[in-house]
Design brief:
Blueprint lengths: L1 H5 L21 H11 L12 H17 L2 E2 L6 E7 L3 E8 L5 E3 L5 E3 L6 E10 L10 E5 L5 H9 L4 E5 L15 E5 L1 H8 L6 H5 L5 E13 L4 E11 L10 E7 L5 E2 L2 E4 L6 H17 L8 E7 L7 H8 L8 E7 L6 H8 L6 E4 L12 E3 L5 H7 L11 H27 L24
Parallel strand pairs: 6-7, 7-8, 8-9, 12-15, 12-16, 16-17
Antiparallel strand pairs: 1-11, 2-11, 3-4, 3-10, 5-9, 6-10, 11-15, 13-14, 14-18
């Protein structure tokens, strides 16, 4: 009696709500943490085969270990494979004159993906229509018309270097055109090189014959000498619980790599900030926790993050060549954040194995529209400021991209979860809620580190 009376004002604690695989709670805090690591200084753009990618891979492996996933490669989450990579690490371009004119990588020039190493110094440049077999000639050509066939033809004709005029577009390739340096160059920089007003550039190049420069043009390009790099894929398991279906596999995957630094220029791509990889980490956290309490998932889940997406999906190809689970017992591939233009390519890679692909695409309202942002090496800032202070790109806070990246990661995690419910647990998921409206794009297009 006295006991009950003394505790009359105490409310017994209610039981926590049961953990349900149907209604996960995605953590914006976790997603922000992943995205800050993926886009931080240490990641240096996350290019395949670079130290920055390795640092990000170590972070992912540590988180998966904390979540309680089983490693996909024996005792490790990281598996090595060799791949070809043509990675430009240095570009220096000057034009002599009364005052030496420097062309700034990331602002005026950028290495082309198929460039080779080398050095050339010339006094003339030749528009492509007049390119002859002169060894050492520098050919000026619109970048929009540049393709592998034309580059091979120019190399055979004795051309040593090509200036591809147009917007600076970052890209990676597996191999160079041997002996040919290829440099992207803005039209504004080309006008300065020829010492003509920008409005007169087209007329100056229309003649077709060699154009005498005001001073000697020197171009030096350095490409990583080791064509093969050791790239990393990351694999982790959540074991299935069904007596029979546990022998079948559902792969939930995304791309982790980025462009990295091209000749010192950091490439930040608002369309690939690692949000799909962050969503895979959230799915790993959720299903690893659920699997400890409930008999789900039924089919085994393999969480995978690929490298080499910009090298013809080298990471996925390496896995298909040496799978850790029999392909004839692989039930499905759920690919988060796959670019719509790459869907056919991935389907062709999976075709011989007969494994169906379920791409998780972003809706138009969430798909970023901004092109990649080039962040020149800060060491060039004094040169640019002396030339024209307004030329140096103004910084933009990363937070202007972070909130939208988190929204995309949350959408991809939810959409991937609903496919897992169907393909691994055998439940028909509820209808996906509509995506939010497209948010306005920030006016600035550079990023603060």
């Amino acid at each position: 009696m006295l006991l009950w009376a003394g505790c009359a004002g105490v409310t017994p604690p209610s039981e926590p709500p049961p953990l349900s695989p149907l209604v996960p709670v995605w953590s914006d805090v976790e997603l922000q943490r992943h995205l800050r690591v993926f886009n931080g200084e240490g990641a240096a753009g996350r290019a395949t085969g670079t130290r920055g990618y390795v640092q990000v891979a170590q972070y992912v492996a540590a988180r998966w270990r904390d979540f309680g996933l089983q490693p996909g490669f024996g005792s490790s989450f990281q598996g090595l494979y060799p791949t070809l990579l043509n990675y430009p690490v240095r570009l220096r371009m000057t034009r002599a004159g009364p005052d030496t004119l420097y062309f700034v990588p990331g602002l005026d020039v950028l290495p082309h993906a198929r460039t080779d190493s080398g050095r050339v110094a010339v006094r003339d440049v030749v528009p492509v229509a007049g390119a002859g077999p002169e060894r050492g000639a520098v050919v000026v050509h619109p970048s929009a018309q540049l393709d592998a066939t034309l580059l091979d033809d120019l190399r055979r004709r004795g051309v040593r270097a090509v200036l591809a005029l147009g917007p600076l577009r970052p890209a990676l390739a597996t191999s160079p055109v041997p002996g040919l340096m290829v440099v992207q160059m803005t039209e504004r920089a080309a006008a300065r090189m020829l010492d003509v007003p920008p409005g007169e550039l087209s007329a100056r190049l229309a003649g077709g014959g060699p154009i005498r420069l005001p001073g000697e043009l020197a171009i030096t390009v350095g490409v990583e000498p080791n064509r093969y790099v050791h790239a990393l894929n990351l694999l982790g398991y959540v074991p299935g619980s069904h007596p029979l279906r546990a022998k079948e596999l559902v792969i939930v995957c995304a791309d982790l790599d980025g462009f990295g630094r091209l000749a010192g220029t950091l490439v930040f791509d608002p369309r690939h900030t690692g949000e799909a990889a962050a969503a895979v980490l959230e799915l790993a956290r959720h299903y690893a926790a659920v699997a400890r309490l409930l008999d789900v998932p039924e089919r085994t889940l393999l969480l995978a993050l690929w490298s080499g997406a910009r090298l013809g999906h080298a990471g996925l190809r390496a896995y298909l060549d040496a799978p850790v689970w029999p392909l004839d017992r692989t039930h499905a591939v759920i690919y988060l954040g796959l670019d719509p233009s790459e869907t056919d390519t991935v389907e062709r890679l999976l075709g011989p194995s007969g494994v169906p692909l379920y791409p998780v695409l972003l809706p138009d309202s969430l798909r970023p529209e901004e092109p990649p942002v080039l962040v020149p090496d800060p060491a060039w800032q004094p040169v640019v400021s002396a030339r024209r202070p307004d030329d140096w790109p103004p910084p933009v806070p990363w937070s202007s991209y972070l909130d939208r990246a988190v929204a995309r990661a949350r959408y991809l995690a939810e959409a991937g979860h609903r496919l897992i419910l169907r393909e691994s647990i055998g439940l028909e998921p509820p209808v996906m809620p509509p995506a939010p409206r497209r948010e306005p794009v920030p006016k600035d297009t550079t990023i603060r580190r």
